[in-house]
Design a protein that fits this description.
This protein is an alpha+beta fold. The protein has a single domain, classed as 2-Layer Sandwich (60s Ribosomal Protein L30, Chain: A). It has five helices and four strands; from the N terminus they run ααβαβαββα. Strands 1-4-2-3 form a four-stranded mixed sheet, with helices on one face.
C-alpha cells in the first residue's frame, strides 16, 4: 500500500509539475570563494562558462543579469567594511569574466555586501557570488504565473 501511494504521488508530481514549469524557471548559479580571496580560479571560469551555455541553450531571451557578491565577516580583525570591499571585488571580477565569456549586450547589474557567516563549508558558505539570468517572459511568451488579479494593481503595457 505504501509503495503504491508513493508511486501515485510521484506520478502526480511529474504530470502536474510540467504545467507551470516554464514560468517558474530560474537561471541561477553560485560561485564559491576562499574566505579572503576575490580571484577567480580556472574551475570557477569553467563553472561560469557552463552556466552561461546552459542558460543560453534553455532560453533565447533574457532581460538582464544580476551578479551579487558576498563576503563573510569571519576574522576578529575583519570589519563589515572590509567584507563589503571584498564582496565588491568578487562581484566586479565575476562581471568582468561574464562579459568576456558572453557576447550579448544584456544589462549586467552588480550588487555586493557583507554577509553573516553561516558556518558551512566553502561550497555552501556565504563567501560567494550569485549569478542570475532574468527571463524575458513577454518575448518568450511564457504563461502567467499569477493569473489571479490583484485588486488595485494595473500592469504596465
Amino acid at each position: 500500500m505504501c509503495a503504491l501511494f508513493k508511486t501515485l504521488l510521484l506520478a502526480a508530481a511529474v504530470l502536474t509539475g510540467n504545467s507551470g514549469m516554464a514560468c517558474k524557471q530560474i537561471m541561477f548559479a553560485r560561485l564559491s570563494f576562499a574566505a579572503d580571496s576575490a580571484e577567480i580560479d580556472p574551475e570557477q571560469i569553467v563553472q561560469l562558462a557552463e552556466f552561461i551555455h546552459r542558460a543560453n541553450s534553455t532560453y533565447a531571451h533574457y532581460l538582464g543579469v544580476s551578479i551579487d557578491g558576498g563576503a563573510c565577516v569571519k576574522l576578529p580583525a575583519k570589519t563589515p567594511a572590509d567584507a563589503k570591499q571584498l564582496a565588491r571585488r568578487r562581484a566586479e571580477n565575476v562581471a568582468r569574466a561574464y562579459r568576456q565569456l558572453q557576447s550579448n549586450t544584456l544589462k549586467v547589474e552588480t550588487t555586493f555586501g557583507p554577509m553573516e557567516d553561516n558556518g558551512m563549508s566553502r561550497e555552501a558558505s556565504n563567501d560567494a557570488v550569485w549569478i542570475q539570468f532574468h527571463l524575458d517572459c513577454e518575448a518568450l511568451r511564457l504563461p502567467d504565473c499569477s493569473p489571479v488579479t490583484i485588486p488595485g494593481f494595473k500592469p504596465e503595457r
